[in-house]
Amino acid sequence: MNNAVIAGRIAEALTYDHEAYKQQFYRTKVCVENKIGKDYVPVLLNKKFFEECGRRPKRGDFVKITGPIRTINELGDDGKTHLRVRIIANGLTFCESEEEQVFQNEVKLKGKVCSDKGEWRVRPGREKRDFVVATYRDYGRKRDYINCPVWKRRKLDISKIRKGTSVRVEGRFHSRNYFKYEAPDSPKGELKEVYEVTVEEIVALG
Q: Strands, E, within the chain: which ranges?
């Protein structure tokens, strides 16, 4: 299981991404507001949705999107491999009325923990533990690897969860940025984007 439900406003103009099996795909980001800020969720949309809806999404439109989270390693212009994370939409709805325009950010996963740091990673005043959960796709043997941080303040029972454990996860898609510097004392840095699923519930299976 790997499914996300995202409702928010289109934050960027659609950009052509690629064509596959005679289908054209466009990328954008959806802004989802929450109690402490905003998450910018990268999504990939099939052009067929525009034809079915009779309109093309534009910046500012309030939409609801459903689909799985996909991760893929791609070679960038810098010659380095970068992890690309986004939601592949299998459903698109335009929310026209105020009653329909309710921000939503829900993710449900079922997979196996393939990476576990085994300790709390301490940040100023905050502690968390990072799990990477691998989920199988509906076809073939390909898997998606999704970072799932568990914040200690949520007091979730993770005593039975370790590398190799099958789990069910519920949470929200979270985006954040940070600067990666060439050296600790270097003024030069590169802006990095991180996409992950902040865990609200995690249960060991079997």
A: 2-10, 15-20, 23-33, 38-46, 62-67, 69-75, 81-88, 91-94, 104-116, 121-123, 126-136, 143-151, 166-181, 189-204
